Amino acid sequence: MTKNEILNDLREKILTEVYEQGESLIERELCEFYEISRTPIREILWRLVLEGIVEQKPSRGFFVRKLGWEQIFDIFQAREAIEGMAVRLTCQRGDVQIFERLTALRKRLFSLDDTNMAEEGPKAGRLFHETVMEGSSNALLKEIYQKVSYMAKMTSNIARHSVSIETLSRDYHVSIIDSILSGDPDKSESLMREHLRTTCRGILDTFYPQVFVPRGSNGKSRKEIENR
């Protein structure tokens, strides 16, 4: 395997939870598995650090990043800024092929139910967000989104354990598609932002229930922090 192939393979293993959040990435074991020396493995690990899905702890080595509530909040704030503009541009540009793909995706989303939501919901959701980004036709937005998307996949791995979060996301995706196809950029952007805020709150409330008043909040409630 080339170094780039190893990078892609290791990234995929992290994003599909072969290596779970917080798990140590032992250089010696990776060298043996991929049959390469330590120098290129370290270069790959540092690349994943830059992508936000691996962290390096002094004197301890490399670990799959374990997302705390602060990181999850920051990820969704960044996504709201990026994807809010992207969905507006997608709606305004009105690319016929993108609209056809969104129409087909709408049918796929409607086919989801409690029996397949946990498995298929995240896949359909990623396809929806990727299609919106592609439809924006903004190269810089897509470049920025690429890094955020890796960390977003890690939040998706958390959210998929809640059928209620995935179901609500599905409903938002359908509504956003409808607003795009109807040519309403204001509503499209508003719904996208609302969707991302709601998903963020759902993850925090479901999986981080102990977080009520964040550190450094100066006495403000979490609701006030989320609405800042």
TrEMBL record:
PROSITE patterns: HTH_GNTR (PS50949). It holds the Pfam family FCD. GO terms for molecular function: DNA binding; DNA-binding transcription factor activity. PANTHER family: TRANSCRIPTIONAL REGULATOR, GNTR FAMILY, UXU OPERON TRANSCRIPTIONAL REGULATOR. It comes from Marispirochaeta aestuarii. Signal peptide: none annotated. This is HTH gntR-type domain-containing protein. SMART domains: FCD, HTH_GNTR. InterPro entries: GntR_C, TF_FadR/GntR_C, Tscrpt_reg_HTH_GntR, WH-like_DNA-bd_sf, WH_DNA-bd_sf. Residues 1-67 form the HTH gntR-type domain. Keywords: DNA-binding, Transcription, Transcription regulation.
